[in-house]
Amino acid sequence: MHFTSPDATTIGKFEKLSEFEHLLHFVSTRVGGISTGSFESLNIGFHVGDDNFRVLKNRKILADEVGVGLDKFTFANQCHSSNVAIVDSSGRGKGAMEQETALANTDGMVTNVPYICLSVQVADCVPILLYDPTKEVIASLHAGWKGTLRKIVTETVGKMVQHYGTKAENILAALGPSNGPCCYEVGNDVVREARMTLGNTYAIIRPSKTPGKFIFDQWAANRRQLIDAGVKEAHIENSGICCQCNHDQFYSNRAGQGHTGRYMAGIMIKKH
Ligand SMILES: [Zn+2]
Asked: Is the pLDDT of residue 272 over 70?
C-alpha cells in the first residue's frame, strides 16, 4: 500500500488494485478533515457522535480528493453480520449524505454496476476490497472479529461466484489498515467462539503478553477464509498497517477508548 498527498488529505492505495486504470479504489485516513477533538479530523462516520455537518463536509473533501461525486458512494449500516447485499443502480448514493438511507443490516456489498463506490467504514475492524477483473465485479466488506467468525469473507466471495459467475481464483483481495496482531487483544469469550466456528485457530489465536488475554490475528483469519474460498494466496494484499499503532493516521476504537471517528475504504468500476 502506498500513500498520496502526505500533507493534505492522505489517501492510501493498494499496489495490486492500482494496476487497473478503470478501477478506482482508496483507503482514507484521519488526515485532512474538519472534525475536532477525538474525531480529528477526517471522520466519515455519521453514527459515532460527531457533528453531522462536519462528517458530511469530510465526506465531500474525500470525494473531491478521489475525484468521485459523493452521490456515487454507497454505505451500509454495518452490524458485524455476514449479510451481503447485491447493489444495483437503485442503491447508488444510499447512505452517502445521511445515515438513515444506508443499506440496513449489511456488512458486505457486491456489484458489477459502474459508478457505484462501495464503501466500508472502520476503526479496528478489517476493511476488505475484492475485485474480479474477468467478470468486472467488485465487493467491499467489513470484517471485525465478529464478522470474521460469522464468515463475511466466505459469504461475499460466495455471492460473487453465485450471482456473477466469478471464479474465486481470479479474485484480487486487499486488506486495509486495521487492528493488527501486534495489538488486538481479546478475552476467553472470543477465543471460545473462534475455536467453535473456525475449528483450527493455529496462527490465528495466541497468548498475549497480558495474563489471561489472547491475540486474535484478524489478518490471518481473513486470509485463511479467502484461501479456503479459492482465492490465490498471491492475489491477497495486506496493508499490514495497524490502526492502533498508527492512531495518529487512522482511527482506532481501542486507542480512542470507544470515542473516535471512522476512516473508509472504497472501490468503484469506472467504465461501462
Ligand atoms: Zn498494533
From this structure: no
Looking up residue 23, the CATH number of its domain turns out to be: 3.60.140.10
Would you give the DSSP letter of residue 236? Answer: E
> Near ion ligand 1, which residues have CB within 5 Å?
180, 182-183, 242, 244-245
Residue 41 lies in a domain: yes
Within a domain: 111: yes
The amino acid sitting at 48 is V
Q: How far is the CA of 183 from the centre of ligand 1 (A)?
A: 4
What is the whole-number distance in angstroms between the Cα of residue 239 and the centre of ligand 1?
Answer: 13
- Distance of CA 68 from the midpoint of ligand 1 (Å): 32
What are the tens digits of pLDDT across the range 187-225?
A: 999 999 999 999 999 999 999 999 999 999 999 999 999
Cell numbers for 206, please give them.
Answer: 495466541
Distance 133 CA to ligand 1 centre (A): 32
pTM: 0.98
What residues make up the domain containing 176? 2-180+232-269
Considering just the CA atoms, what is the radius of gyration of the chain in Å?
17
The number of domains in the chain is 1
In a domain, 199, yes or no: no
Q: How far is the CA of 246 from the centre of ligand 1 (A)?
A: 7
